[in-house]
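Archive entry: two folds, one per protein. Generate the first.
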Amino acid sequence: MLIIDTKLANVNSIYNMLKFLDIKAKISNDIDEIYKADKLIIPGVGSFDEGIKNLAPLKEVIIQKSKNTPILGICLGMQVMCKSSKEGDKKGFGFFDVEVEKFENTHIGWNCVDKNLYYFMHTYYVPVNKYTISMAKFENIEFSAIIKKDNILGVQFHPEKSHKFGMQFFKDFNEI
């Protein structure tokens, strides 16, 4: 499993969680290592345009890998997999034909998703759409907590900060 170093997230917290779970992982943004990876994680904290800018040199390899490799986008990593965001002007990867929307306030804290508690920290969100497999609610708005299309999975929450529920989530992703 390879965690893409987007320069916008604490990739070490994801790496440390995977290491704790005895899941072999590596942090890199080297194109050759991405090509060799059996699974990819795109983490992210920060702005949409900055995320797209930092991933631009890797866009071609990520798109190529998306055809047959399980890919997990976490928070901003999920949002950049959408077509666009109201947060910026750049185009996303377009794996999900959805535009990312904005809450009035920042959603920070625990929220229930399918009877599990996950930690959220975001101002922008993916609206409920045909790719939504699980929802959460904030400010009376239901939003996509988990989206999926083929082998591409996106989560708005941070499994690396979600204790036992996040551990189980990573174990399940590792088994794909």
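Generate the second and append.
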Amino acid sequence: MSNEGKERTHMKKTAHSRVCRVIRDYQAQYLDPISVQGGETLIVSEKVDYWNDNPEWAWVWCTDRRGKSGWVPGGAIDFDADGTTGKARYDYAAKELSVVIGNEPVVEREEGGWLWCTHPEGKSGWVPIDHVVES
């Protein structure tokens, strides 16, 4: 992935936290998600997925030093020249948040077609961007 592509997929902190309304239920898919620390070395596979077919939302299947694998946003990785390893650019946790229609989570940041949300009960995690609208 080029540096330009890496920059475009880098996590965006929203200008301010905002409340959104869930318009489609979402059930967390990965109950034991990958979590990486900035600077951590990752084994990078050739498996890449473009969320909702958007080339700016690239996700790469990676394995951490503990042997846990999962999807990591392409913008979160500084790829080594060999293309099979890289370093995490920042801390990232792939924790998803289950939500139902009508929930009103607070959105704090956006990454690769997903929003980091906090539910009023205090639980936080990623929700697909197309499952919520601005309140």
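Annotation attached to the second fold: Residues 61 and 71 are 5 Å apart (CA to CA). The first strand starts at residue 12 and ends at 22.
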